[in-house]
């Protein structure tokens, strides 16, 4: 298929509407994503702390995933269906009035909402708290378009709006069905009466936020909607740009395979990156070394007949292990492999890298061969002690299956061997060296939508491992629109804030006035694997009327971020341009 047609196909696929993270910004729940929607309301999930604060401001082990619901009351004003029941909130407590959830409420969450969590939050399975919390979930309910004053005797500047009702669900057994926690724990029901589950009864106990704020909220929410649309287009445009680059880099004589092809091989990400010539995508030198050793070993096991027929024209490597016991030394095992001579030079040195022996000079030659076009290397820890690599990332079994399936002399196998040899000898991959492999064009296939997404993500991750110098200005990474919270943009936490500033901040907090974060980089990684970015904050689209009062209440210049004096509608394209705005150009 001609390159132009391939480009048009990928661009068309990437132009389709992508699922964009939908949030509850006006309730100060950041990063909430829509899980399910029906006539009863909208059901969101969000990774938050146990006090519903922003997760990036807490230890990983203080985070959990919760369900947040905006319910649409029925004609009688009921927003949650339950039946009267006796309840024991604790095993030792006497029975008291309470309620049991109706089966339709349980089934909606269990059958429609929770099954979508893994799909909408694919990163949650890798979270250290996933195993701890996979069998329990906390659901908080709000009433659509109803915002209420808090009843809490404390205020955290970054916590979500207080919900009007909550429910616990737990699994019965490790893989059982979801049921109310009071059933699983042997209690009697929820300690709340049915008459508290109507809009009218809620308003008897909780007051609405001021009418003026409610009127202003429509304008605020419209701003969020505009940003959501703009951000979705921006993300699509970014993916399209990477798709065009992915296609434009293709050339005759090189084998190209889509992601659906690679899925048939497990633990094969490093071989894929080597075959594709994407050396910067390899996170650790030991991964490359493991791929090199495994390829040579399995080629000998599966493809020995394709090695030089004369043993004198082959190179061999033998390792023998001995054990000394009671003064006697004896051989316990040995390992022997034969290979084409050109692979022999680096074989033992690759073993040194994989098993973390002293191989710093040789490591540097590999790193140099994997350098990005901009001159940065893909390994952020070059010059440091090699860190442990988790597990075997390249398996003998899958490499052997790859050789048998593709054939020992197929163009993709020859491309793999060539790039392994070139990388091990400090040379650029075949793609950049202008080499070709007969039969490669016929063996190639068109890219898919996910390939462009992967290409973009891997490039961003490689940049994070080796960010560019700050003085050059980081390229645009992403932007985030958040609702103003007391203390946001200030040097101090809301509880220790300058009193006069806090007064103004509370007014803005009620309105949820939007603030635009412009993140540049990435500039590296946090311990939890998230990207570090250089972040600047601005008001979104227009400054709030209270801004002058907020600035006048400062006790020192650093009480407000410099960017909070300005309003913009889109992030500047790089960090230097953002800084120029902050500094008044």
UniProtKB/TrEMBL annotation:
Signal sequence, start to end: 1-21
Q: Keywords in alphabetical order, please.
A: Signal
On the tree of life, the source organism's domain of life is Bacteria
Protein name as it appears in the record: Uncharacterized protein
